[in-house]
Amino acid sequence: MKFDLILLRYGELALKGKNKAAFEQKLIQNIRQQLIEFEAVRITKEQGRLFVELNGQEMEPVLEKLRDVFGLVGFSPALRVESKLESLQQAALQIVQHAPNKRTFKVISKRANKSFPIGSQELNHQIGGYVLKNAQPIQVDVHYPELFVHVEVRSKASYVYGNDIVGLGGLPVGSSGKVLLLLSGGIDSPVAGFLALKRGVELQAIHFHSFPFTSERAKQKVIDLAQILTRFGGSIRLHIVPFTEIQTEINKHCYESYSITIMRRIMLRIAEEIAKQNGALALVTGESLGQVASQTLESMNTINAVTNMPILRPVVGMDKQEIMSLAKQIGTYETSILPYEDCCTVFLPKAPKTKPDQETAERQEARLEMERLVREAVEGTEVMVLSAEQEDEFSYFE
Ligand SMILES: Nc1ncnc2c1ncn2[C@@H]1O[C@H](COP(=O)(O)OP(=O)(O)OP(=O)(O)O)[C@@H](O)[C@H]1O
Hints:
Blueprint lengths: L4 E6 L6 H18 L7 E5 L2 E5 L5 H8 L5 E10 L3 H13 L6 E8 L8 H15 L4 E2 L6 E7 L4 E4 L3 E2 L11 E5 L5 H11 L3 E8 L6 H18 L1 E8 L1 H10 L5 H19 L4 E3 L12 H8 L6 E2 L7 H11 L2 H4 L6 H4 L11 H8 L4 H10 L2 E6 L8 E2 L1
Parallel strand pairs: 5-6, 5-7, 10-11, 10-13, 11-12, 13-14
Antiparallel strand pairs: 1-3, 1-4, 2-3, 4-8, 4-9, 7-8, 12-15, 15-16
Helix pairs in contact: 3-4, 5-6, 5-10, 7-8, 8-9, 8-14
The structure holds adenosine-5'-triphosphate.
InterPro entries: Rossmann-like_a/b/a_fold (IPR014729), ThiI_AANH (IPR020536), ThiI_fer (IPR054173), ThiI_N (IPR049961), THUMP_dom (IPR004114), THUMP_ThiI (IPR049962), tRNA_STrfase (IPR003720), tRNA_sulfurtransferase_ThiI (IPR050102)
Main location: cytoplasm
Subcellular location: Cytoplasm
């Protein structure tokens, strides 16, 4: 059996008016982008329903791509048939035969076209009866069926489909504005980026790199992580900030116990500047509460004090196990655990202050040429644009 189309389902319930139109438009645009390699495939809209028309294209690779689209709650391979009882019966039988491991089923008919002569209850019986007679041993279970056979009778044509494949949910990327993700080479920040994308933001990323204290491989690891995230986000601008001088200066002039606090404060100043230059309205980090010294509430207060920009921390409510398991699902884990050091680990103080206060941080920072250091780091930032359909060698520097 060859399916004709894939019926798409999105969380339209919470959306109204103008929002709904913009949401749909963005979703269609993102799906088109995701399916760009399949030349025959078309996306169509009919009576408020979105479909992927396969036009002869093999379905499995298309389904694989749809699994990575935010905004899709679910999708179902479907058959489009004439609105005639025999055609509906045959299509339902095909759906059942295509799901060989299912032991029970239930037909759910909907009659959007009220001029169709058979009511939905009667249609359920007639189609269910036909399937029972013609399919391999399978039974009806109206309460907990393993397979739902949906039949939608519409005026132009009817649609018959089985169980939903669960999608990523969330909002279409690009429907909620732009943010800048502070991307380290660790496990948490790529997951934070994924969760930010889930809320519909367009993602840019920034990484602080301290060559030669941190290696080129550490930088490549971050590029690879950003590249993995493009699977869900289309294209990602990655800003790589030269951070060596700043770290050296902090080491030379500031209390060792405050070095992480001050380093983070400077990262935020630079990130805010780059965010503003790029039209991003919030920063995103992989911070969570209480994991490490820099993530106590006191520490967050002292670090945050340098910016008014909202900082989103999508993994704050998750514990490490949950973050790791999501990292595995989205494919960043294996890259994150590669052993190349991050600038934070290289300069890790023996006893970082767990409750740093703002006054001390400011006094320490007064020993640095803050304005120059920030300006030069911003000016020296390297930008890469990574996109989903390109492999690494095609990404380019600006
Ligand atoms: N070199 C860096 N470049 C960009 N952002 C960074 C860098 N180092 C840390 N960050 C940001 O600061 C956050 C907290 O870093 P930290 O090392 O304390 O925590 P973490 O829980 O180990 O996070 P991760 O696993 O993402 O590294 C990171 O999640 C990331 O958002």
